[in-house]
Amino acid sequence: QSGYTPKNNELNSQIGVPYFKVSDMNLPENQTYMLKTTLFSKNQKLKVYKSGSIIFPKNGGAVFTNKKRILTMDSIVDLNTSVLTPYFLIGLNYLYYFMLSIDLGKFTKGTALPTIDSASFNNTP
Length: 125
Hints:
22% strand, 4-stranded mixed beta sheet, Adenine-n6-DNA-methyltransferase TaqI, Chain A, domain 2
């Protein structure tokens, strides 16, 4: 799934659902689990992703960093982020370590703004 970037007037620094940007993956507290953000949203209409979902960059040079992180709380993520939510048949730890083995850079298209080619990614066994 793809994230969504809220409007500035939908964000605040104190209360609501945590909102993570790709840059938040670089914070020392967020090396495996997404624990820290400075932005929140009280907009009930935004798409919220479940705790235990795995997020990773899908646009820009950040794709080549191969960062994969686990949401620790129901959260909103920005448009430059992909979200993979495990179903009950696949355990979170299995899926996370499987995702660590994937080089996202091999699934990109475009040169000026590399983007994960979702068709290629989704059709990979």
